[in-house]
């Protein structure tokens, strides 16, 4: 194991960082309530309705990865943060910078829409987001909406939506953070905020480097090093009658990876431009508009291969509060996705530069009164390749007793073929593919109990048809799959003490073969417990997965099995004074080398092992 200093020195450094307090404290990388505000009724989300809404009113299951959690460890990757939700199975082919796939409620990786302040981050070529290359330096909180959301967001939102909500300056401030850990890993972050009479500016810069860890359990597997650097800037104005902002972020770097035993490397770069505005025409009518662009470039080293993806979107929507209890949301969005790909091998050559344009029209009615909250919406999507698609959704939550509410929703969603699906002919691309479609329904219960306990339960069924899959050497619409599952959550908080337990079960079945789909463990559980206040915090977070079916070695048809695992994180912080914060994080404290996915020929991808680190933030 390559580390930046000897293990005894590392343990001593962590002990010092924690021992500076008589009651060391921390915050785990998981979904948990804020100690500063134990009343979850005040939690505000925007993903479910496209506007600020109390989470208690949402007729769906949505979880929050809160600001304190995101800020606790600058080194922590987005895939690691998302592991804290039991409904999500993260499959990463190694440690830092390795391909990461997200399976929300058992659906495919391309069935979860990833957003940043409304900007679509899913690749135009593969349909999935490059989660390992997305930096979270300027992210305030992460919202995870489970279940279909195509009415408001269009394609890809079959299994759910993960939205990164960026920070907006609230006061003049400046800070610098440094964190250093095992495997020669370090990250530095610097930032400044300016606010004056509703006008604000923000800038962030960051750099991360690591020597990495082995990607597979092959005896001669090399460490996969990774580095990234980037910055973000935001300029805006926020007044009662109007608001506007311009965001820019860029992240680029280098990543080693394993290609079936051959070590390779690639350079990456992603760029986000987001121009947003809001105008309150009257006290009851608000108009929002957005122009955005997301670019992603992957360039292979020592070969001419590259993958370039670009998504441009223009959107305008308005919200009309036509009675105190009712509002109407209506809008139109136009999107153009472009894929530019070159891949040369001894078996095939893929080369194309194509784009697909689509326009969506959506409307949603919302009612809130007398303990009843409803949402009914419809979207018509006009795509120049596959034609017109209509989806709809209806949902309701009812407060049947002061401490008890129930909800239900039913809806359809879709995923349009990507440019790879349509134009990568040598990979089996088919320009006649139809979009994948889903029909789902869900019921849920939320109950507040005695002794500051709260319980949440949900059950769902989601059937996807016209799945895009290979038949021989070509992609076709063939398979049907059904995802049936349930989730159970228990929360408790007493002053500074807290506990959050969640359990998820999903059965992902191919309806034609009746087999389980690969890389979907049926059972998942997370537990976070600890103490936190404004000065100190300490917590432990446990994540557990059951075994899952994986791919078979050709020509055998017998599937392999990826074993289950349990991993534990420990986190602590101490706000020494208003200007100095000390913290330490230990990901996978037991150094459990668990298998994440099958690589073939009796070789598995493995996780990155333990990562212990210490850090300091100086702020003004």
TrEMBL record:
Subcellular location field: Cell outer membrane
TonB-dependent receptor-like beta-barrel domain span: 213-589
A single BP term in Gene Ontology: cobalamin transport
PROSITE patterns, alphabetized: TONB_DEPENDENT_REC_1 (PS00430), TONB_DEPENDENT_REC_3 (PS52016)
Domain TonB-dependent receptor plug, residue spans: 55-161
Motif TonB box: chain residues: 43-49
Keyword match Ion transport: yes
Keywords associated with the record: Cell outer membrane, Ion transport, Membrane, Signal, TonB box, Transmembrane, Transmembrane beta strand, Transport
A GO cellular component annotation in the UniProt record: cell outer membrane
Ranges annotated as spanning the membrane: none
Membrane topology of the entry: Multi-pass membrane protein
Pfam families registered for this protein in UniProt: Plug (PF07715), TonB_dep_Rec_b-barrel (PF00593)
Endpoints of the signal sequence: 1-26
Superkingdom field: Bacteria
Gene3D superfamilies: TonB-dependent receptor, beta-barrel domain (2.40.170.20), TonB-dependent receptor, plug domain (2.170.130.10)
Family, as annotated: Belongs to the TonB-dependent receptor family.
Protein name: Ligand-gated channel protein
Naturally occurring in which organism (per UniProt): Acinetobacter silvestris
